[in-house]
Amino acid sequence: MKKQTKAIHTPYPARDAFGALSMPVYHTCAYEFDNADDMADAFCGRVIVPDYSRVMNPTVMHLEDKVKALTGAKDVIAFTSGMAAISNALMAVAETGKNIVTSRHLFGNTFSLITSTLKRLGVEARLCDLTNLEEVKKAVDHNTCCLFLEILTNPQMEVADLKALSEIAHAKGAPLFADTTMIPFTEFSARELGVDVEIVSSTKYLSGGATSLGGLIIDYGTAEGFNRRIRFELLFNLGGYMTPHAAYMQTLGLETLDVRYRRQAESALRLARMLRTLPKIKKVNYTGLEDNPFHEISRRQFGDTAGAMITIDLEDEAACKRFINSLKLIKRATNLFDNRTLAIHPASTIFGNFTPEERRDMDVLDTTIRLSVGLEDVDDLFEDIAQALND
Ligand SMILES: *Cc1c(COP(=O)(O)O)cnc(C)c1O
């Protein structure tokens, strides 16, 4: 079966008693067993059947199975949010005295998780420029518990060379963890690029228009001891497993992911081209544009689409605020890949509690607006942006 067919037809863990065509939402906390031995086998992991919904649930398992079928991963585990997936993945490898090699170009909470939360537990954060392989080589050593990156950084729009980074990490026995939220796993194979563990905020493209929060750990089975730690320790001890209701909505979202994503990425490219004609926009940053510095590497790694996030730079912060306030159709909101187009000024919101110096180090500029392109007609989006710029 091809990917889009698998997204629809991956079978259920077991046939529902009524033959329900869509996966039922199993809103149950616990499961009944026929006898003591079956119960013991389930609890000790000798037989994989649900015993308690903090760690396993048929509706969530169905979403996990679909993602497994689409990625060829060894295991997929669904969490309550992208951050729950990221924190579980990092907690599975982090130890006092070890280090995480990563970038300053990270999603705000991931940056804070690594540089504050994990730092308090004695894990060193080694921040480097991941596009500078020599710098990364110097940072990675035998105490590196993982090399962590985002495949397309936000809002800087940087794309690093995954294969080269995986080789540097693997040479020191460290796994490569990649947050692939920005380009769906249906578009490219992270495994082929040397990624050991892929992490996704399924709140974004997957949820089918921002219906629910979710996160996925897509484990290719190549990071030593990782799966055991997550499945049989952290899932139990940290309690971040996805809820059945969210899994139901995200499974529906996954079924239409391909059409929605393709349309949104196509609109983003068209809009990026159109925005370049507006003189008040100083810069349009989108890796789908042929002259973008990361265009070639993005194409090589992720294929012919470049996601649905664009950033634009205006004269100054005041111009950004005026622009945001003047939008009529585009929504003033955070989040990415909703069905509706969203605009935000990252420096004063997502990164608003960092100091100006910290923002400068992260290349989060006061002049940048982030747009997440939705499913509206591109001409209407362009018209709204053009009128907001001239207000
Ligand atoms: C949104 C996002 C996250 C966090 O995901 P939540 O589902 O909001 O917890 C992590 N990484 C990236 C790249 C994101 O865009």
Question: Can you tell me about this structure?
Answer:
This protein is α/β, with parallel strands linked by helices and 391 residues long. It is 39% helix and 13% strand. It has 13 helices and twelve strands. It has helices at residues 3-9, 36-43, 58-71, 82-93, 108-120, 133-139, 162-171, 226-238, 244-275, 295-302, 317-326, 356-361, 378-390, and strands spanning 75-79, 99-102, 124-127, 144-150, 176-179, 197-201, 215-219, 283-285, 309-313, 331-332, 342-344, 368-372. The strands form two sheets. It has a seven-stranded mixed β-sheet with strand order 1-7-6-5-4-2-3, with helices on both faces. Strand 4 (144-150), helix 7 and strand 5 form a beta-alpha-beta unit. The protein is globular, with a radius of gyration of 21 Å. The mean pLDDT is 97.
Concise overview:
It is built from 13 helices and 12 strands.
Q: Residue ranges: pLDDT <50 for 5 or more in a row?
A: none
Shape designation:
globular
Mean pLDDT: 97
Bound molecule kinds, no repeats: pyridoxal-5'-phosphate
Q: If strands are numbered along the chain, what order do they take across the biggest sheet?
A: 1-7-6-5-4-2-3
What kind of sheet is the major sheet? 7 strands, mixed
Oligomer: single chain
What would you report as the Rg, rounded to the nearest angstrom?
A: 21 Å
What helical percentage do the residues reach? 25-40%
Number of strands: 12
Beta-strand percentage range: 5-15%
N to C succession of SSEs? HHHEHEHEHEHEEEHHEHEHEEHEH
- What's the N-to-C terminus distance? 52 Å
